[in-house]
Design goal:
Length: 187
């Protein structure tokens, strides 16, 4: 009878060890799904996330093909690589979903978000808020004697950075659209 010896630190190559090597690190992914524009589709997609305890950081939906009755759902989510793969597979199995793309892994993409910031302040804080808005290329879309509403467009990190700087100056309210994203290039 021969004994099988495995060196310390070596892995076994058993037929029962079919689980791929996934990392436990949490990753942020941007998913784009092309879906039928019909009642209940968004609820089914959201149900997939809530029913399994997956988090949605950003969600945008808009019709992109009026004649073909198609909408695009852009979802920013986080999870381990295994969870992201499960989300993509489960999204692809929902009947009105035509295609699912993981823009994070499929190549270069462009992400933009629009946000409105209401900032109160007078005197030096008002001047500083206007100066920072100019640096961030934010537009003043409303102004009163004691507040501004700024409009800013950019990557989510830019929006976050602008919010961090406006907080000590009198940030009152924020409205964000969520991420809109497209793959770069001709495909």
């Amino acid at each position: 009878m021969s004994a099988l010896k495995i060196k310390k630190g070596a892995t076994s190559h058993s037929a029962y060890n079919l689980r791929p090597n996934y990392s436990d690190t949490i990753e942020r992914h941007t998913l784009a799904a092309l879906v039928e524009n019909e009642p209940g589709v968004l609820a089914r997609v959201i149900g997939l996330f809530s029913g399994r305890g997956y988090n949605i950081e950003s969600l945008t939906v808009a019709e992109v093909d009026h004649e073909g009755h198609l909408s695009r759902i852009t979802i920013v989510t986080t999870g381990t690589p295994q969870v992201i793969e499960q989300i993509k597979a489960q999204l692809g199995r929902i009947v009105p979903v035509h295609e699912v793309h993981d823009l994070t892994v499929e190549g270069p993409s462009v992400e933009r978000e629009l946000a409105l910031f209401k900032v109160s302040g007078d005197g030096d804080k008002r001047i500083e808020a206007l100066r920072l808005a100019e640096i961030f290329r934010a537009n003043v879309v409303d102004s009163t004697l004691n507040s501004f509403v700024f409009e800013i467009t950019g990557a989510p990190e830019k929006i976050d950075a602008f919010a961090d700087l406006m907080r000590p100056l009198g940030l009152l309210e924020v409205a964000r659209t969520g991420v809109a994203a497209l793959a770069r290039g001709s495909e």
